[in-house]
Amino acid sequence: MPILRAILFYMIIVPFALVFGSFCILTFPLPYRLRYSIIMSFNRIALAALRLCCGVKHRIKGGDNLPKVPFVVIAKHQSIWETFFLQLHFAPMSTVLKRELLRIPGFGWGLALLRPIAIDRSNPREALKKVKSHGTLRLSQGSNVLIFPEGTRTEVGSTATYARSGADIAINADAPIIAVAHNAGVFWPKDGIAKHSGTIEVSISDPIYPEGRNSKKLTADVKEWIENEVTQMAQSY
């Protein structure tokens, strides 16, 4: 049943992504925030389809004390689900992502209009420079910036090295960090197409300010908060 329900989900969302992505090209002349809001209709529909077809819902803890200024979001990365959710919840958002995603027909076209920070992962040195400079620019333009510090999706229960790029941006721009932990990988696994019904737990931190910390210490503090939250979630299932 999880596989059949997932197939139904993809039968709805893939054709819609192709059609909607083509439509999104027409929003290019519009002001950025209006364009962003229109394109986010896809994220809303994707999350709704996931809930109806696969029974995957979510519940949020925290997030009541978000900064009044643009901030850096540093999040756990276990599935595709959090990309849909975070871009919608923290709008407007510029996401650090691999540039290959922009080549996906439909989906990539819409994504390209959201001012992402697309990097070439085959050139880490240049990618790091671009993340720092473009991240600072996006904050100055009024967008929040999303970084997955582990670089790629990880298995549930595992932890990869946290890159310091998010902390570098926060320090360079004197911007707060919002850390996000979740267990989306339990319900939308990294591998395979099956989706498992249930409620994704999302935990959002209070603002973490960079004052008095270098990027190593700031990254370590953010990692500790995220991983502690993920561990607590794991104890409930």
Description:
It is a single chain. The chain is an alpha/beta fold. It has a single domain (2-234), classed as Glycerol-3-phosphate (1)-acyltransferase (3-Layer(aba) Sandwich), CATH 3.40.1130. 47% of the residues lie in helices and 16% in strands. The protein has helices at 2-24, 32-54, 81-89, 107-112, 124-140, 165-173, 184-187, 215-234, and strands at 56-62, 72-75, 93-98, 117-119, 144-147, 177-182, 198-204. Strands 1-7-6-2-5-3-4 form a seven-stranded mixed sheet, sandwiched between helices. The radius of gyration is 17 Å and the shape is globular.
Question: What do the pLDDT scores average to?
Answer: 94
Parts with pLDDT < 50 across at least 5 consecutive residues: none
Largest sheet: 7 strands, mixed
Taken as a percent bin, the fraction of beta residues is: 15-25%
Characteristic key phrases:
globular; seven-stranded mixed β-sheet; Glycerol-3-phosphate (1)-acyltransferase; alpha/beta; 8 helices; 237 residues; 7 strands; single chain
Give a quick summary of the entry.
This protein is of the alpha/beta class.
